[in-house]
């Protein structure tokens, strides 16, 4: 069975980003995006995820790379959907203590797109005791701290104290890994590495050693179960934290994902999903691009993938 090499990884990324480009209209914000108590997961969340991935792609690809150009165009498209950041200020006025506007805005700020008026308003609210004592689970809190840094907000709360309260930070028994904990651990790493954009991974050595032991079997478990979305997130972790996955695993993982990718470029969240509905394909397809680009950046010149 032929292993998928670097060229294959890039083909997965290119085809996936082509699908995202063809479906970019589905990421657009509708009138319900500003509705009070609206469905944030259906409006702002997809747009923020698009921005987050594209901000990383523009950082981790060469400006001459077609992947870089397409990602930059998509990031600009997403920014225009926010009225060049003006909608964040509107959200701030409607829901001053909601954290999701800042979390989405941070993805754009990471890509160099900023709105000074929103940042001033967000910083004012962030100085209140109410904001600083918003109750969140540790992984979400870590994400908010990361978002605050991109928004120019300084908080005295140390990230290390928050990290210790996460599932991954507790170095749990490996057999307690399941879907929810899997997504939690990937996001802890994404927050610590600024979504793969940090030059040096900010993951403590004890977590790196732990992941080196258990990330490979977890990736294999997800691939065996056809959980393509989570497998891609775990592969992005492997590319963000050096030494946590070896060539045989990476080769086999990308071979399976390449086989699972639809001719259109879409990657379903799970093998059991039929069709290419946007809701069941967009996130996993974004994660395929994300993981592939990070893998190519980390290992492309080392001959690791054959």
TrEMBL record:
Residues 14-293 form the DUF6895 domain. Pfam families: DUF6895 (PF21836). It comes from the Bacteria. This is DUF6895 domain-containing protein. InterPro entries: DUF6895.
């Amino acid at each position: 069975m032929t292993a998928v090499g670097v060229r294959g990884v890039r083909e997965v990324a290119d085809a996936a980003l082509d699908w995202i480009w063809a479906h970019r209209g589905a990421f657009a914000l509708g009138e319900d995006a500003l509705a009070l108590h609206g469905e944030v997961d259906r409006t702002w969340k997809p747009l923020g995820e698009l921005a987050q991935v594209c901000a990383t792609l523009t950082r981790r690809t060469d400006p001459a790379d077609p992947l870089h150009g397409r990602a930059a165009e998509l990031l600009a498209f997403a920014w225009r959907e926010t009225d060049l950041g003006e909608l964040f200020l509107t959200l701030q006025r409607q829901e001053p203590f909601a954290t999701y506007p800042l979390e989405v805005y941070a993805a754009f700020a990471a890509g160099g797109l900023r709105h000074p008026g929103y940042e001033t308003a967000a910083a004012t609210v962030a100085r209140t005791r109410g904001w600083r004592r918003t109750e969140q689970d540790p992984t979400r809190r870590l994400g908010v701290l990361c978002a605050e840094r991109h928004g120019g907000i300084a908080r005295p709360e140390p990230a290390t104290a928050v990290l210790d309260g996460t599932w991954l930070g507790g170095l749990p028994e490996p057999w307690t890994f399941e879907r929810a904990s899997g997504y939690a651990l990937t996001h802890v790493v994404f927050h610590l590495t600024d979504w793969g954009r940090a030059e040096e991974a900010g993951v403590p050595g004890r977590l790196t050693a732990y992941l080196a032991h258990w990330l490979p079997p977890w990736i294999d478990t997800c691939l065996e179960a056809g959980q393509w979305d989570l497998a891609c997130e775990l592969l992005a972790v492997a590319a963000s934290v050096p030494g946590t996955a070896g060539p045989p695993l990476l080769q086999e993982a990308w071979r399976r994902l390449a086989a699972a990718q639809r001719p259109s470029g879409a990657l379903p969240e799970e093998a059991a999903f039929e069709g290419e509905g946007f809701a069941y394909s967009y996130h996993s397809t974004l994660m395929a691009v994300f993981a592939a680009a990070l893998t190519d950046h980390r290992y492309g010149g080392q001959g690791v993938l054959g």
